[in-house]
Design a protein that fits this description.
The complex is a heterodimer. In chain A, 80% of the residues lie in helices and 0% in strands. Chain A is mainly alpha-helical. Chain A is elongated. Helix content of chain B is 76%, strand content 0%. The termini of chain B are far apart. The chains are: A mainly alpha, B mainly alpha. The interface between A and B is large, with 38 and 37 residues.
Chain lengths: 123, 132
């Protein structure tokens, strides 16, 4: 049996074994999103509620497509990691694992669906 | 000998004050709001991506998605999410500022809390006016 004190568990890379990797990844994606979000809100907000031809025309132009694709990929990774952190704080055992897998999958499904829609409109 | 092999005994350590008996403070409320807004925004993102998929698919599918996003329900979801994402944005910037070791004294931390709350409402109104 391994004898580990609470102190020992927290030393080095900590109990998760990944050190500050998660925290740093959240910081990097948050800075990226801080630049992307205001621009994307303007693009998306302007297109929302418009007729289909206007929407298709908007998302056929390079800049709106690239910003939306970046928001989807960076944003959904940021969401998946943030949601994982929340789940790990409040749930444990099998429930925790199922919720983490569910949230991560939801993020990928949304990102993939959005990228497919963008490709179909833009290409 | 037998003692050395035993799992270390759980030591009764003092617990931090429990949420239910802890007086709500601006700093704690603005902290938990960051988590709630960040996770809640996923509802609007899912709706937005569905709308985009409909736009990519066909006129009839788009008519359905457009009817949903422009209904009172769509307005409610997107307006709430707009405030939530601006709140999360400002609280995230505050988090980066805190991480860099600044603004951790109580008066500054409370001021930054008000910046998040008031700033998010102001930015929401500005965005709605800009995209109309």
């Amino acid at each position: 049996m391994r004898y580990l004190t609470a102190r020992k568990r927290a030393e080095g890379r900590g109990s998760a074994g990944t050190g500050t990797e998660h925290h740093w990844a959240m910081k990097v994606s948050s800075v990226g999103l801080a630049f992307l979000l205001p621009v994307w809100l303007y693009i998306f907000g302007s297109a929302l509620g418009q007729p289909r031809d206007v929407v298709v025309e908007t998302f056929a132009r390079p800049f709106p497509v690239i910003v939306t694709a970046l928001i989807l990929v960076v944003g959904m990774r940021h969401f998946a990691m943030g949601a994982t952190m929340m789940i790990e704080d409040y749930a444990k055992g099998t429930t925790r694992k199922m919720l983490v897998i569910g949230a991560t999958s939801l993020a990928w499904v949304i990102a993939a669906t959005g990228l497919y829609a963008l490709a179909r409109i833009a290409l | 000998m037998a003692d050395a092999k035993r799992t270390p005994q759980k030591i009764e350590r003092p617990l931090s004050p429990h949420l239910q008996i802890y007086r709500p403070q601006l700093t704690s409320i603005t902290s938990i709001l960051t988590r709630i807004t960040g996770n809640g925004v996923i509802v609007a993102v899912a709706l937005a991506v569905w709308w985009l998929l409909a736009a990519a698919t066909s006129d009839s599918y788009f008519a359905l998605a457009d009817a949903v996003v422009t209904s009172w329900f769509g307005d409610l979801v997107f307006t709430a999410a707009l405030w939530a994402v601006w709140y999360h944005f400002l609280a995230g910037l505050r988090h980066l500022y805190f991480d860099a070791g600044h603004g951790l004294d109580v008066p500054t931390a409370e001021k930054l809390g008000w910046v998040c709350i008031i700033g998010s409402v102001v930015l929401t109104v500005i965005t709605i006016l800009l995209v109309q």
